[in-house]
Write a structure and sequence with these properties.
Shape of chain B: globular
Order of helices and strands of chain A: HHEEEHHHHHEEHHHHHHHHEEEHHH
Mean pLDDT of chain B: 86
Number of domains of chain A: 1
Strand content of chain A: 5-15%
Strand order of the largest sheet of chain B: 3-4-5
Number of strands of chain B: 5
Number of helices of chain A: 18
Oligomer: heterodimer
CATH architecture of chain B: 3-Layer(aba) Sandwich
Low-confidence stretches of chain A: 1-13
Radius of gyration of chain B: 17 Å
Largest sheet of chain A: 3 strands, antiparallel
CATH class of chain B: Alpha Beta
Number of strands of chain A: 8
CATH topology of chain B: Rossmann fold
CATH superfamily of chain A: Cytochrome-c3 Hydrogenase, chain B
Mean pLDDT of chain A: 88
Strand order of the largest sheet of chain A: 1-2-3
């Protein structure tokens, strides 16, 4: 292990230019255009993405994304874990909104074994999902603004994000990777200190979004760098599999929360912000408006938060609370069985999709009849968005590429898994 | 600080060369602008307003490894990424230090599989390990202060060798 074959891998990098035949234009072989490596260590690629650029002066002729620098084998690892344990691994895919990954995986399990989720758990899930949508959009806004030269937006965005992370810590004991969602509901009920903190945040937040907008929306530098850059029309956007704000920026009204409501999203009133031109600026506006809509959803969810259990009472799938263990033999048996072996799921396949902050994240789950899945596959938005970057970046300047990468909001952990 | 004022002789301080240099180095350890995965987000939080790394003279992230003193390996190092990390480390000029941030960089974390290098210390020497998945900003700052202690203990005799 110690002598990892670095030198051999390095040699592969030096490979011949002819390997690129068919991928770059013929002009690259005569030296008329220049090949430039951008990444995997590059501050503006939002992770470890490598783009091989063919440049004519400063203009991008071709762009070849190279992914896999963060391939972690999460899907394969899940095959050797029981269902509840695997939730922990899903946190670490799209690390800007771990709750969405938890959600889609738990929903797949719930669909596979036909497990109920009580109304209170659904409402808590909605609150957490929308909070993580805001948290994720704040990181996106901060980094995109920083890439285009506006440093202070980053500092403001992270100030609000810290408040959300503090609330997640109250719920799950961890700032980011809480694994708070479990099959059948959530890990534990809301802590008493959570709702006051959330109230304070809700009170404060609309004013903060106004602040971000005051810094950027009418800022001439920002408008120059984003309007008319990276345009994609609705048909192309659908053809390349874009989803989320990247798709809605082109004016396609597709939000899974509206189209295929889950977790009680049909009970809440909210609008789906749409763009017109499909450029970087419209995608920016869509996400900023989405933060306001998320705020609206959380407000409604808190106001009509139902009482009742926070997790399913089905003891074949959900371990009993600690208090029951001293009084019920059956509870001890369930506790032992669920924490040693886990529950079994039928040999069937399911697919569920939800709207993550980035777009449609889907989970394909195939049971074996035993306590571990046969195959898990995640359909992740970042993967789709990266394949569209060459289309968006074509004939743009290299500086515009930075704006484009930021605007499709990619997370490499989400793409490579 | 390692600098002691000499009594009765205003405006003059005495110290050893070692202490003066080490003091200067701890006050301006420029990190490499380099993130891999989830820990990089916590690293960004540490940089941002609430935790404010500029208190330790570290607000200046250098995107070029030539200008950086400290590499914070924030996240899981995969087999495909390992040569890149090694190359970045080789490009940094001496003196240089490495903090391995988080469980994945320190020992592979939860990923004991085909894709992840089981600890970045298999490819580069590490000075300080920070545990956590991901570590809180406070934990990272503790790691940085631990590194400062290490830097303060360095000897000129060792640099020469």
């Amino acid at each position: 292990m110690a002598d990892l074959v670095i030198s051999d891998t390095m040699k592969q990098w030096e490979g011949s230019l002819m390997e690129l035949k068919g991928l770059v234009s013929e002009r690259a072989f005569t030296g008329e255009t220049m090949l430039l490596n951008m990444g995997p260590h590059h501050p503006s690629t939002h992770g470890v993405l490598r783009l091989l650029l063919e440049l004519d002066g400063e203009e991008i002729v071709n762009c070849l994304p190279d992914i896999g620098f963060l391939h972690t084998g999460i899907e394969k690892n899940i095959e050797s874990k029981s269902y509840e344990k695997a939730v922990t691994l899903t946190d670490r895919m799209d690390y800007l909104s771990p709750m969405s990954n938890n959600m889609v995986f738990c929903m797949a399990i719930e669909k596979l074994v036909d497990l109920d989720v009580p109304p209170r758990a659904q409402a808590i899930r909605v609150i957490c999902l929308e909070l993580s949508r805001i948290a994720s959009h704040l990181v996106w806004l901060g980094t995109q603004a920083m890439d285009l030269g506006a440093m202070s937006v980053f500092l403001y965005c992270f100030r609000e994000r810290e408040k959300i992370l503090d609330m997640f810590e109250m719920l799950s004991g961890q700032r980011m990777m809480g694994s708070y969602f479990r099959p059948g509901g959530v890990w534990r009920d809301l802590r008493p200190e959570f709702l006051p903190a959330l109230e304070a945040f809700l009170e404060d937040f609309p004013r903060r979004v106004d602040d971000y907008e005051a810094l950027l929306t009418n800022n001439p530098i920002w408008v120059d760098r984003t309007q008319g850059v990276g345009i994609i029309d609705p048909d192309q956007a659908l053809a390349w599999g874009l989803s989320g704000a990247a798709l809605r920026g082109s004016g396609v009204n597709w939000d899974i929360r509206k189209a295929m409501p889950y977790s009680g999203y049909d009970q809440y009133e909210f609008d789906v912000p749409l763009g017109e031109h499909g450029d970087v600026f419209d995608r920016f506006m869509c996400r900023v408006q989405e933060m306001r809509q998320s705020h609206r959803i959380i407000r409604q969810a808190v106001d009509k938060l139902p009482d009742g259990p926070f997790r399913s009472e089905n003891r074949k799938y959900v371990p009993p609370p600690r208090s029951e263990l001293g009084t019920s033999m059956e509870a001890v048996i369930h506790h032992f069985k669920l924490w040693t072996e886990g529950f079994s799921a039928p040999d069937e396949e399911v697919y569920v999709a939800i709207e993550s902050p980035r777009g449609e994240i889907g989970c394909y789950l195939h049971g074996t009849g035993g306590n571990k899945p046969r195959r898990v596959h995640f359909k992740t938005p970042s993967f789709m968005h990266i394949q569209a970057i060459p289309v968006l970046a074509k004939d743009h300047m290299i500086a515009d590429l930075i704006a484009i990468i930021g605007s499709v909001d990619i997370v490499l952990g989400d793409c490579d898994r | 600080m390692g600098v002691t004022p000499k009594l009765g002789n205003l405006g003059v301080v005495t110290s050893t060369l070692e202490e003066a240099i080490n003091w200067a180095r701890t006050g301006a350890t420029w990190p490499l602008l380099f993130g891999l995965a989830c820990c990089a987000i916590e690293y960004m939080s540490t940089q941002a307003s609430n935790y404010d790394l500029s208190r330790f003279g570290m607000e200046l992230n250098r995107a070029s490894p030539r200008q950086a003193d400290l590499m914070i390996v924030a996240g899981r190092v995969t087999r495909k990424m390992a040569p890149v990390v090694r190359q970045l480390y080789d490009q940094m000029s001496d003196p240089k230090w490495v903090i391995s941030m988080g469980d994945c960089a320190s020992c592979g974390g939860v990923y004991n599989n085909y894709a992840v290098v089981q600890g970045v210390d298999e490819i580069i020497p590490v000075d300080v390990y920070v545990a956590g998945c991901p570590p809180r900003p406070e934990q990272l700052m503790h790691g940085i202060l631990t590194l400062h202690e290490k830097i303060r203990g360095e000897r000129i005799a060792d640099w020469a060798s």
